[in-house]
Design goal:
The chain is an alpha/beta fold. The chain is built from ten helices and 14 strands. α4 packs across α5 and α7 packs across α10. The protein binds adenosine-5'-diphosphate and magnesium ion (MG).
């Protein structure tokens, strides 16, 4: 692969010196007119998008859209052929060592290390990042706790379920305490429970201040996780921006699910009276509502606040992904086999 830059796990590059990012004002990811072609296949034809610090951005597109290629370029494993890519203001070509010190890249496959326990696996990568014994012990203990794998630390890596292997992969990319996580289809092949557990960990990591760029070829896999999306199709960006803009673009009503703790007629009357509310469906005998409203006239927060102000206890307040699915289908074409 002549297009490959030096892989991060070889030779001198293992001794990464971590430089704190400059002044904290640059976006986490800035991609401008990025193009890349394999020998006989144009994979990216001039893509531009930005990911703000502290956000969780869903990088979504059908198989073959160019997600893995983009992620490898962000991770400094492939060189851009034209355009610029900056991570926290650092150029991925000229500043690749700094970039590597501040990112964690989780590839779309799990590399198995025979005869290694979970602890040894993580300790190995921590050593590769140049941590001494005491630092390693603390780091590995911390990342095991974060990914809920502490009780598995003596288990062999191959014996783990797919969900646990994905969490171990995530733990591995956390050992250098990166500010930006680049995750290539981490939820792929996980059962619903394992997927929810992974999403919970990612939410926690965001609360710790990390920026997360996560790819998927199935929009619903990402559920409610993302506050912004980059939709890619056949090497071109179709949408880049906040989740609200994605749904507004399809000119669709907003769909929300509202569950209250006790049945009460009052919120129902109040909900129906809100300007911009299009439909209020209530489950028979339960304080469960499905709401449909015009996002141009009524904001989700206004609805929630009105419900809370009348004294109702809210158990669930969730956007339904039906509108996101429609947006995705409108913006992309059926997948091409990679
Ligand atoms: N190593 C490679 N050699 C040639 N073509 C490739 C290679 N890797 C990916 N491609 C092609 O580049 C395009 C983008 O692929 P990829 O970035 O893997 O997409 P995604 O991750 O969205 O499925 C596809 O058409 C794919 O077939
Ligand atoms: Mg891929």
């Amino acid at each position: 692969m002549t297009n490959d830059a030096q892989p991060a796990t070889e030779g001198e590059d293992l001794a990464i010196t971590y430089n704190p990012w400059t002044d904290g004002t640059q976006p986490a990811i800035e991609v401008k007119d990025l193009a890349f072609a394999y020998k006989n296949q144009q994979a990216l034809s001039g893509i531009t998008f930005t990911v703000a610090r502290g956000s969780i951005n869903g990088f979504v597109g059908p198989n073959g859209a160019g997600k893995t290629t983009t992620l490898k370029i962000l991770a400094t494993l492939l060189l851009p052929q034209s355009g610029t890519v900056r991570i926290f203001g650092r150029d991925v070509v000229r500043g690749y060592k700094d970039v590597r010190g501040g990112i964690g890249f989780m590839p779309d496959h799990f590399s198995s290390y025979r005869q290694m326990t979970v602890f040894e696996y993580l300790d190995f990568f921590a050593a590769a990042y140049g941590l001494d014994l005491a630092q390693r012990d603390k780091t590995v203990t911390d990342v095991l706790a974060l990914t809920d794998l502490t009780s598995r630390k003596e288990d062999f890596v191959q014996a783990l379920s797919r969900g646990m292997q994905q969490r171990l992969s995530l733990a591995r990319v956390l050992v250098n305490d990166p500010d930006l996580l680049l995750l290539d289809e981490p939820a792929s092949g996980l059962d619903p429970r394992a997927r929810i557990e992974l999403m919970d960990i990612l939410q926690e990591l965001r609360r710790l201040g990390k920026t997360i760029f996560i790819s998927s070829h199935i929009l619903s896999e990402l559920g409610d996780l993302c506050d912004s999306f980059t939709i890619i199709d056949r090497g071109a960006v179709r949408y880049a921006g906040p989740v609200e803009g994605l749904t507004a673009q399809t000119d669709q009503a907003a769909h929300y699910v509202l569950h209250l703790s006790v049945a009460n007629d009052e919120p129902e009357t109040l909900l129906r009276g809100l300007d911009g509310m299009l439909a209020v469906d209530k489950d028979e005998g339960k304080p469960h509502y499905r709401l449909k409203f015009d996002p141009a006239r009524l904001r989700p927060n206004t609805v929630l606040k009105a419900v809370l102000d009348c004294g109702a206890e809210v158990v669930t307040w969730q956007r339904e992904t039906v509108e996101l699915k429609k947006a995705f289908m409108d913006l992309t074409t059926p997948g091409v086999a990679p």
